[in-house]
Structure formats: C-alpha cells, structure tokens
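Reading group handout, session on sequence-to-structure problems. Before we discuss, look at one worked example. The prompt was deliberately terse, the way you'd type it at a terminal:

> structure Aminotransferase class V-fold PLP-dependent enzyme

The input record follows.
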Amino acid sequence: MQSNYLKSQFLLKEGITYLNFGAFGACPKPVFERYQQYQLELEQEPTQFITVNGLQYLRQSREALAAFLNCNSDDVVYVTNPSYGVNIVAKSFPLKEGDEVLTSNLEYGACDRTWSYYCEKKGAKYVRQEIKFPIQSKEDFIEQFLNGLTSKTRIVFLSHITSSTGLRLPIEEICAIAKQKGLITFVDGAHAPGQLPINLGTLNVDFYTGACHKWMLTPKGSSFLYVKKELQNLCDPLLISWGYKSARPSHSQFLDYHQLQGTRDFSAFLTVPAAIGFMKENNWSEVAQNCRAIAMSNADRFRDLLKTEPLHNSKGDFIFQMCSTLIKTKQPEQLHQLLFVKYNIEIPVMQHNNMTLLRYSIQAFNSQQDLDILYNALEDIIKTTNLVDL
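And the output record:
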C-alpha cells in the first residue's frame, strides 16, 4: 500500500505513535541523504563549497522554492526559521510612537514576543485582537479580527495556519481588505507550505515567512522570508556581514544582506529541490488531502470524548492536517509526559492564553490506527488518573 511505502520513507523511530509533525517536521530518507551529501561536500572542500559551489546551489534551490511558491526568486531568501524572518521585519519596520500592529490572540508565542519587544522599543502598540470561540465561519473570524483595526494601524500580522489551535485562517480575505485600506500585510506561514498550496503571486501580501522543515519535509533549520520588491529596502540584516557594501555586489541588495551571514552550514537550504521532487514523485496533493480527511473526520470524536466545546463550527474552512481539541487538565506537562512514557505517543499538550489544547498532526506516515491508539490511551487516562477533567 502507498501509505506503508511512505511510512518506510521516514526515519522516525519504530514503536512511537508520532502525532507531532507540526512541531518540527520529519525528513524523508531521500531528502536526508541529499542533505548529508551536501554536508560531506562541504567538509571535503570547505572553501569551494562556501564561496563558489554553494552559492550556485543556493541560487538553484531558491529558484526551485520560488517556483513552488509562485514568486520571483530574487524576492525570497532563506532563513533558519520563521521566527528569524519575523525578527527581520519587526526590527526593521518603521513604526512610530503611537502606531499599532494588529494581530490576533492566536499567534505563535515567539512571534508575539518579537513584536512586543520592538513595539515597546519604538513606542508602538501590539494589538492582540481577541477571537471568541467557537468561530462560526470565515466571515465571523474576519469580522472579529477587523474589529481591531483603528486609524493607527500600520501593519497586519496574521498566521496562515496557527500553531496551537491548528486553524487555517482566511488570510486571502484579510490581505485583500488590508490592501484596500492601504495597510502593510505580513503572514506567518510556518505551517502552510507543503500542507496547502501557496501562491504568492496572487495573495498580494507584502511579507510572508514559511518553514521548509515542517510540512515541506526538509532537514531542520530551513525556512524562507518573502518580501515584495518595493519593500525590500526596509529589511535590515539581523547580522551585518560581507553582503553589506560587498566588494562583489550581486544584482540584489536584499540577497546580499540576508543570504550569506558569516560561516555556517547552509546545507539544509539546499535540500528544497529534493524535497519538492519527493513530494511530486509521491503525488503529495493527494497525500495531503487524505491526511486532511483523517484529521477532519476525527475532530468531533475527540471533542466528544473530552467533553469540551469546539473551536469552530465549520471544519471545512479551518482544519487541514492539524487539529486541536480543548482539554481540561491542570497538569498539561504531566499529561504530555504520561502519553509519551506509558503509551509511546508523541503529541503536544499546549497552553495558549487561558486554553489548554491537545493537537494532533496527520502526515503521510499516519493512519486512522494512530488516532485510535490516542483515543484508547485517553480513555484509559480518564478512567485511571485525575489528569483529565470531564
């Protein structure tokens, strides 16, 4: 069966029910092997790799990524993780005292901290617009979110797919409305590439950062930042290095400033063409659809077991390959540890605002059996411990 073949292509340990792909991803064997080939080439001739061959590989990889995202290859640069990309933009963006950055209260904690830090330094305000659950529809979310807009809003920052709640947000509509109002838009797409199609050519977003090492299947430390050409001059490098006033400048200051920053192993960046190739060879759009079907079909089942309220009333709008369920526990860390140690299940139990969430991720190596194992474990925990309140 195709699912068994795909499971054999991943390096995950046997015996673990792995339902946490959304955290750090997992790399298939052919992509990991390509990664190691690049690392070996680096060690065999470091100078040629870093100063000559590696630059050609970077260009080729960036071109493959740009084709995958439908954007110009000069408008995207590799970064180690999406938080790095957020830091570039948040540090550089010309906020003035009294300006506002509008976001939701569903965003990733590291990004919240980044914006809070730079807003505080600049005298601006980071507005975390509250989203009330259950969300009834895309239109309901849009209305709730846009209630946070004021005459002081300068930039809108929003996740494509949220980390803790796993919700796919209506960024297309939000970006279109923001553009009509003359606002800058920034989408945190950490979980989106590889999980759903990305078309930066039609999205009309100003900044977009995404991970390749999550749903795109590359090794860790491989992500990207896209910046619309007319705004690239705003983006100062986090690290000043040889790209600044380069003796051999390229055609793009954006690439010079951000592509090469000191001595580092950028082999993970170079595996993007191999990862895209792996997805094409294995009809990844169909794989993703099957994974989404499993994620969606189990959502109500876990909510009923845990006797909690839904996060939304429209699964088709909000669920892709990740699904979060509210869970009533005063000891989330102990619950997570018990699930791993006793039941061999790797799944996050996360706190976000005043919520505790159990989030499962469904990837090519997962099956309905994995969620049955989780369901049975939770049933047992409910019966035999006081870790879950009903």
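Points for discussion. First: The mean pLDDT is 96. Second: The chain is about 45% helix and 15% strand.
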